[in-house]
Every structure is written in structure tokens, then in C-alpha cells.
Amino acid sequence: MRVRASPGRGQGCGLKRSNLAVDGNSGVTVTLGILLALACAVAANLGNLLKHRGCAAAPPVDLRRPVRSAVALWTHRSFAVGMLVGGLAWLLHVAAISMAPLSLLQVVLAGGVVLIAVMADRLFGLPVGQRQRWGLVLTAAGLILLAVSMPSVDGESHSFSLMPMAVFEAGLFGTGVLLLLGQRAGLRDEHHGLALAVSAGVLFGVCNVAVKALSGLVHHGGVGGLLTPWLLVAVCASVVAFYASARSFQLGGAVEVIAVTGTAANIACIAGGIIVFEDPLAADTVGLVLQASAFLLVIVASALMPAPRSAAPAPA
After folding, report:
1. Which domain holds residue 278?
2. What is the pLDDT of residues 206-222, one digit of tens each?
3. Is residue 290, in this structure, part of any structural domain at all?
4. How many other C-beta atoms can be found within 10 angstroms of the C-beta atom of residue 62?
5. Domain tally, the chain
6. Which of 22, 60, 98, 224 has its CA 20 to 30 A from that of 155?
């Protein structure tokens, strides 16, 4: 069933994709969405760096004691300010995804990855190795290459079908939760921080896809559009992602964790744009090769992001 909504009928069963011709107002709306996404990228990086500083000074996050862990985090000024800045970034993101295609905006946001090294070094005095700088550059290059190879999308691309949406969100949410159990699944301790970063990014992606759907339902059906399961999905995913992200900040370096979290969220949202909202793939062989190359660049960049670790001392 395709989700359908029309301006004069309320929510009904959902939204239907519009085939209206692109006019000047549509182009201005998409451009404004891109500018908001750029502002979101800067605010998100700043907020994440502040949260990393606060998390490093807080007691270890314990998912079995969520309230105590949350209170301990919020008592640190850097974390609280980082959350507020991150909240501003989220509002900018919500505004952006209501104006332009999700896959396009996520690639614009990915371009902000290269700012992480500059902000971490200049504003927070955090060391950024050459290997990590290359990882950031390759990540941004790969995701921007996706933007170049993506066909243009007419309109705001709000429509979705219920079954692909449900399967996509359930599968991604389950993947994020499984990554939280990395140590129990035999993952090495030194990799647990990055596994949590990937988990947080995937769950942020779940939330973003749900918010994209909600923005369309509200736009066409009013406040009643919020009375859908996707609001619960967005809330649950964001709550679990909050704790996964905070713990990943405590176990990993700022640059690598922020980059891996953002990359996972971007890939999840690009996939959501294609699978759920039917953003088109390249129609020719060259475009498909470019897209495959872009994903390969992102994979290589993710492998470069973790800082080299010194060898453990030999046992006596």
C-alpha cells in the first residue's frame, strides 16, 4: 500500500507521490534545503565535539541504569551545551529534509565530514593523524561522488509505500541493536567503541527516515499526521542512539567516532531515500559504476578512520 494524503482530505492512509512539474518555487525550496543542510553539518560537528568532551569527563554510560547515566552526562556543561547545539542541528535537519530529497541532503551533510578535522584541531586541540585526515577526505569524496551520480529528483519526494518502509526501518533498527551487543557477540574490546558508533549512526538513520515520512504526513494532513507508528519509531531509535553515541564517545577518539557515526547515518539515509522514498539510482552504466566506486571509497575510508593503536605490553 502506498501512503497517500491530499491537502483537502486530512491524513487518510498516507501520501502519494506528486508528478507536478518543477517550477521556480520548487527550485528555491530545494536550494534552501541544501543551505540548511550545510548549516546543520557545521552545528552537528560542533555539538558532537562538545559532547565528546563532556562524555570523556562523565562516568561510564550503563544502559542498565539509563536515568542515572543520562543525569551524569547532563551535569557536565560541555555535554549539555553540545546537546543544545546538536538540537539546533537537528531542527535545521528536519527543516532541510522537508524541503529537498533525503538522499541529496545526506550527501550535502556528508560534505561537512571534512570540517571535523579542522574543528577538532583548531577549536578543541585534539590531535588528528594523517591517516585520519585521509579517511575524512575519502569519506567526503565518496559521499559527494554519490551526489554527482544521483539523478535529479523532482519535488520534495515525500511519498512512500508502507511495506518497504516497515521492512527497512525494522531491519535497520535490529541491526543497530545487534551492534550494541558487540562484546557479547565476541567483538574485541578495542573495536567496541567503533561498533557503538556505527550502531548510533544506523539508529540516527532510522530516526531520520521516520522524520522524513512524518514531515510529509504533517505537511499534507496537518498535526494528525503525527499520529502514526513512525513517531514512536523515531523516538525509540533516537533514545537508543543517544546512549550508544555517548558510550562510543567514552571508548573511542572524537574524530573517528564522529566520522563513523555520521557516515553510518548518511549511508542509512541514502539507502532510505532510494528504498523507501524511491529516489532514483543512476540509469546508465557509468552512473552505476560511479555509485559503486563511491561506496567503495566510503568503506576504505572507514577502515582508515581508527587511529593506530600501540601494541599491548607482553605479559610477564
Report:
1. 101-304
2. 998 998 888 878 877 77
3. yes
4. 12
5. 1
6. 224
